[in-house]
Design brief:
Distance between the termini: 82 Å
CATH class of the largest domain: Alpha Beta
Number of domains: 4
Order of helices and strands: HHHEHEHEHEHHEHEHHEHHHHHHHH
Radius of gyration: 27 Å
Mean pLDDT: 90
Strand content: 5-15%
CATH architecture of the largest domain: 3-Layer(aba) Sandwich
CATH superfamily of the largest domain: P-loop containing nucleotide triphosphate hydrolases
Length: 426
């Protein structure tokens, strides 16, 4: 039985990796490690199908080290011993350890000495947050890199290569993939290249050629093979972003019915990733300090939706949309950080007051670092009238409170009280 297209198209060297340019691009950390042949054990974490195994395979191909693959959950200590013996006899072995967060203590204790002496270069792969799910003993011996979902351009480039590659891909088939079908295939799989390639292979091998012997991969064919409907047949591909924009603007405008309509469009298209990301953005950008609890509830709803998957995910998502729509709204924090960033980017930074500078080192006091700093918790109101903003910026005001929710009203009263104290003591 032939191996799946996604398996066959795995990169043979670091140059063939699609996406993850923040790690494997020219001058970036993993590329530097490969070029210098100074590899260290690492943990790659991120969503499924984003290239964790591909990066490990590419590193091995570029360095020409032996490459072995094990699963921390299903493979045994004996399997690790076999890899260790190979490393002792032939030199360095790159070990891709999938589901590394499920490595038990027995296997971990066996593996640690080999990670220490560099005989085994472990590349752990996981979809879990390693800072939470992986034992500190392993984590401390590895560099941790986040692998991100591929963008449309990366996935489209991989699809085109798979269609043209006669040795590993589908180049022996005479295929025509329409522009709208390519666009939908690159979006509907939500950054998962494995899913995109496997759907492409199914489409090619299950579609009968036309009279000219050409396999016509239309939007309808791709919709069936990925089991997700396109939002529209608009070849320019604007509809995807239009619907997301309309969802946010409808929630911002407190129109529950309109927001529910646009949510339904995205649910029907199966775009869980875009929905979840956008709702969390809305929770903090548009609801903000008027109702922080709504933002927290949105995060909980998103987590539930991601655990449930469709079709059940629609229920917590709908609940979050109603909650956000009818919540009081404030963009004060959003405006405050953007105002501060604008000053930074325009070169307005100023000198940090000496009494705020780090004083936890020998000789700091001789330089005036931390001298004169007053500790607010030593005062009844937990507030001291001293300079915090950089020199030359003491009149800057970024945060302008709004009065649209009880929580921010309380913040506003506190803010106004402190501002009044500043004026009274000046």
């Amino acid at each position: 039985m032939q191996q799946p297209l996604a398996f066959r198209m795995r990169p043979r060297n670091i140059e063939e990796v699609f996406g993850q340019q923040h790690l494997v691009g020219e001058g970036k950390i993993i590329r530097r490690m490969v070029d210098a042949k100074m590899l260290s054990s690492m943990i790659l974490y991120g969503p499924p199908g984003t290239g964790k195994t591909s990066i490990a395979s590419a590193i091995a191909g570029s360095t020409r080290y032996a490459f072995r693959m094990l699963n921390a959950a299903t493979d045994t200590k004996k399997d690790l011993q076999i890899v260790a013996e190979e490393a002792k006899m032939s030199g360095t072995v790159i070990l891709l350890l999938d589901e590394v967060h499920r490595l038990d203590k027995t296997k971990q204790d066996f593996l640690l000495p080999f990670l220490e002496n560099g005989k085994i270069i472990m590349i752990g792969a996981t979809t879990e947050n390693p800072y939470i799910s992986i034992n500190p003993a392993i984590r401390s011996r590895c560099q941790i890199f986040e692998v991100k979902s591929l963008n449309e351009t990366d996935i489209q480039a991989a699809i085109k290569q798979a269609l043209s590659d006669e040795e590993r891909g589908l180049g022996l088939y005479q295929t025509r993939l329409t522009d709208d079908a390519l666009l939908h295939l690159s979006r509907a799989t939500n950054g998962d290249l494995r899913s995109a390639l496997n759907a492409l292979e199914l489409a090619v091998k299950s579609t009968q050629p036309d009279e000219d012997g050409t396999i016509q991969l239309t939007l309808a064919v791709i919709e069936e093979c990925v089991q997700r409907k396109a939002l529209t047949h608009d070849k320019k591909g604007d509809a995807h972003y239009d619907v997301i924009s309309a969802l946010q603007k409808s929630i911002r405008g407190s129109d529950v019915d309109a927001a529910m309509h646009y949510l339904a469009r995205l649910v029907e298209a199966g775009d869980l990733v875009s929905i979840c990301r956008r709702l969390m953005v809305i929770g903090y950008e548009d609801i903000g300090l008027a109702n922080p609890a709504a933002a927290a509830r949105t995060v909980t709803a998103v987590q539930a939706a991601e655990k449930l998957g469709f079709p059940e995910a629609r229920i917590p998502l709908a609940q979050a949309v109603v909650d956000l729509c009818l919540s009081p709204k404030s963009n004060s924090a959003y405006l405050a950080i953007d105002g501060a960033l604008a000053d930074i980017r325009n070169g307005l930074v100023g000198e940090i007051p000496a009494h705020l500078k780090d004083s936890h080192y020998k000789g700091a006091a001789d330089l005036g670092r931390g001298v004169g700093y007053q500790y607010p918790h030593d005062t009844p109101d937990a507030w001291v009238d001293q300079q915090y903003l950089p020199t030359g910026m003491t009149n800057k005001h970024y945060y302008q409170p709004k009065m649209t929710g009880k929580y921010e009203q309380a913040l506003a009263h506190r803010y106004q009280h402190l501002e009044k104290n500043k004026k009274n003591r000046s």
